[in-house]
């Protein structure tokens, strides 16, 4: 069997982290979670991930700012990682805003876990 994919979940809500972990671990993904964008960059510095689920509204460093920082990393494997935004106030942003920040896709809260799974699979199987 192929090696399981590693997903980094950046989300400040423990409830969403736990639900997301349960859904994705059922598909055999390895899940690591952090609470803000600064921690995302610290984790990326130490290890590789196949995909990042990024909450937009987080303390310390938000998802847009963090994604822009990821896209500036010199290592192409890390700078080109698919990043999917998770947001409750997507109306404050357009898809164009997300694309300009370097986000590959977005999911709105409350999360539809079937859509979450299909979106994750879409970006991991490219």
From TrEMBL:
Domain of life: Bacteria
UniProt-listed PROSITE patterns: RESPONSE_REGULATORY
All copies of domain Response regulatory, residue ranges: 6-124
Protein name listed in UniProt: Response regulator
Pfam short name (any one): Response_reg
Source species of the chain: Echinicola arenosa
Sequence positions bearing 4-aspartylphosphate: 55
Keywords for this protein: Phosphoprotein, Two-component regulatory system
Matching InterPro entries: CheY-like_superfamily, Sig_transdc_resp-reg_receiver
């Amino acid at each position: 069997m192929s090696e399981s994919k590693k997903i980094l979940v950046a989300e400040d809500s423990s409830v969403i982290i736990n639900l997301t972990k349960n859904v994705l671990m059922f598909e055999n993904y390895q899940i690591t979670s952090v609470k803000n964008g600064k921690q995302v960059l610290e984790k990326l510095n130490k290890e590789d991930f196949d995909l990042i689920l990024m909450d937009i509204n987080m303390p310390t460093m938000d998802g847009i700012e963090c994604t822009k920082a990821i896209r500036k990393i010199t290592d192409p494997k890390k700078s080109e990682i698919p990043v999917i935004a998770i947001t409750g106030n997507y109306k404050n942003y357009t898809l164009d805003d997300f694309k300009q920040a370097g986000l590959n896709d977005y999911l709105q809260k409350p999360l539809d876990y079937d859509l979450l799974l299909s979106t994750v699979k879409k970006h991991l199987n490219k």
